[in-house]
Amino acid sequence: MDVLGNYKSVISARSTDKDITKKSQDGGIITTLFAYALEEGIIDGAIVAGPSEEPWKPEPVVVTTKAELLAAAGTRYTISPNLNLIKEATRSYGLDRVGIVGTPCQMQAVRKAQLYPIGMRDVDDKIALALGIFCMENLSYQALEAIVEDHCNQKMESVKKMDIGKGKFTVYTERGAVSQMPLKLIHKYVQPGCNVCLDYVANLADISSGSVGSPDGWSTVFVRSMKGNAVWEGAMAADLFETKAMDQVKPGLDLVTKLATEKITKNQKNVDARKTFGLKADGTAKGLRNPYETP
Amino acid sequence: MPGRTPESRPEATPAASQPQTKPAVKPSDVIVKEKVEVVQKEEKPVADKITIGELHLSGCTGCLVTLADNYEGLFKLLDDYADLVYALTLVDVRHVPEMDVCLVEGSCCLDDKLSVEELKEAREKSKVLVAYGACAAYGNITRFCRGGQWNQPGHEAFVPISEVVDVDLYIPSCPPCPQQVRNVAVMAYLLLKGNDEQKNLATAYLTPLMQLAQRGNEACGCDLMYDVINQGLCMGCGTCAGTCPVRAITMEYGKPNVNRDLCIKCGACYSQCPRSWFNFDVMNNYEGIMDAIKGAME
Ligand SMILES: Cc1cc2nc3c(=O)[nH]c(=O)nc-3n(C[C@H](O)[C@H](O)[C@H](O)COP(=O)(O)OP(=O)(O)OC[C@H]3O[C@@H](n4cnc5c(N)ncnc54)[C@H](O)[C@@H]3O)c2cc1C
Ligand code: SF4
Ligand code: SF4
Ligand code: SF4
Q1: For position B22, what pLDDT does the model report?
Q2: Which domains does chain A have, with CATH numbers?
Q3: Model-level pTM?
Q4: Residue B136, ligand 4, Cβ within 6 A
């Protein structure tokens, strides 16, 4: 399978809504699409990474308004277990059409919940819009704290934005300070589960998006499923995005392909290495569990 | 009083007075005949149906109700894909018949001779034996039984059915989900009656559920620790916590925390976790497969 997954089109885009781009991480694709889908009744609500009591620690929430979407915009580089609410959204919240945003692994979880709804009663046909965000790796909250407070020497609560790009982890504070650390040093903090992850650009989302491949403030957007295509075309018709062809922007799709290939090749090696991780008494290899083969 | 009933409701008697295996199948035979005509008019190929039964052991009937919770989907299944040949209250057949797929609900009480016999008979007479629901697969809540309960205080030893018979496929969770048993039924139909392509799809789809049956009959929220987190595989998606029917799992700083006193050992969290198993060959095709299942149910 192609490292970029199946898609109908790939475009560079930016939201035309300034309220959104002020708060969004990149081109505001996710927030704009959910706001549009809410307005059009395509979804009744969306599961996003909302704020919590601790600074930069996301808490999954079900939102039904644009104001709530804006409060949850932007990337938190730590785990937001959005799937925790997927059944709840259809139950306590009574939503018939659920939107959900998540990392590639969370999109995998969504599709497994739909195809094998083992403990996911009445969920499969209620996922109306699954939006994926690109993801190279993720961090525990404590790891993020170590990076921001120990390495970048900034207080979590004083940080305005965090960003990954051009080989660096960058922290912007409310008072205008900018601290950086090389991405290479982050590796030891990455949660182990990310080292066996075989998806970079959320291949199983309806629409997936990330900054890589597009200029600053713009996003690369893959329109993947039939559902995704219908929503994207509707949003385009409503002039919610300005767009550029992927071959007209720098650094372009080649960089996306390159990073996706690097991630998947590295992690496939990790998966394979698990097979010969240990040692049996007879001198042959003893393996760890491989989720891509058997339960 | 007792003498009056048969007179006032003469239609009620045939089931009792005729041989036991046949009459109950009759209503569905009628449905088949009607259906065949319709299908021929539409010039679609007439495919045979498969036969499905539900053997009820020590379960609460929630699994059986789950099957019915497919509502019109259940009628569609029974119209086009499967004859229900055995099931408590739904089908008036007293003895375990031959069947393609036997869904077994409930754990097996070793102190109840009839349960053990029927389970073995079901194994003998079915092509595919499914542990349908958490009690059959993992013991579930019946794991906590120590006997002394009314009205069978002597019934004390309850085991997942795989302690007594070989099991082909697991459908975990308490209760299982209507959409999961529907998908298995459709896939079993494709496996037994479909063309080569459909057989391949059905095999790929059913494989992990068959592998679950091989994995063992002990389940607990602890599996998330043993087989996901301890193995360095958890990525914090929250599926397990969202799945648990008794809310025994909370997400603490991005990882599941299991309240082990609440866990009823249903196996839903682990089997739903995308890091227990993830079969790309099926998942990458999710759109087509979901459309196909939806199409089959229309
Ligand atoms: C851990 C992580 C790693 C990433 N790595 C890359 C990368 O390598 N390359 C790349 O191009 N892009 C990466 N991204 C995606 C990127 O940072 C932006 O999230 C994406 O471009 C969407 O921006 P936007 O302006 O369209 O979305 P916005 O309109 O800002 O909306 C973002 C949405 O994502 C949700 N969200 C925020 N944090 C999380 C989270 N931790 N988990 C789940 N949902 C969340 C928010 O609630 C919001 O709804 C990563 C994101 C995360 C969370
Ligand atoms: S790297 Fe993979 S496993 Fe880790 S958070 Fe990102 S998508 Fe999930
Ligand atoms: S933790 Fe919940 S889902 Fe997991 S086995 Fe226990 S009861 Fe079932
Ligand atoms: S479902 Fe699996 S991967 Fe997701 S949080 Fe639970 S244990 Fe971790």
Answers
A1: 36
A2: 9-138+192-286 (no CATH), 139-189 (3.10.450.750)
A3: 0.92
A4: no
